[in-house]
Give the backbone structure.
Amino acid sequence: DTLYLELHKTDSLQRTFSLYGFRIESDESSLCFDAIGNNGADLPAYLKCDLFEQQLRAAVPDIVILSVGINDAYTRQFNAEQYKSNYRKLVAMIRASAPECAILFTTNNDSYYRKRYPNLNGAKVQKAIFELAEEFDAGVWDLYEVMGGQRSINQWVAAKLARTDRIHFTSGGYYVIGTLLSDALMNAFLEFHSQHLPGD
């Protein structure tokens, strides 16, 4: 229940120390979950991360779940081909670091532009994600459809599961989304397992 950390210089010129994160593991659990994210970041922001591949390689993931792209679609000038091009670069970085891991795309949530205008890019992103998943033999969890499609964010706001900015969710909303996603993953695993039992 206690961690002691001691730092030692290896060179007299050292003046800084960078810590990128801790992973504290236990033999009691077979699941290890890492999450990265940055408010306001778009796909090109992740492509600029110099240590992305190196750190992903160290994590040795079995699956990478990609839930990025809403900031790319929060514009009146959305370009689906550019969006897919950026995603292809990100997938290439993942495959270079962890070629055996599975990839699961999630579609964007429904949103509004400047609180007043339905973001019509939601359906365009949804289509682009399904095309990317087919291209990369990856999975898709369709959040856009799960939450109800265009203008459905209003129902989430009314239920206090989304904020009045009509982009972000409340903590309760994120909990619901996380639960729905984990349930979908578990159901898919159980279905796969039942179809591939020894002797079947």
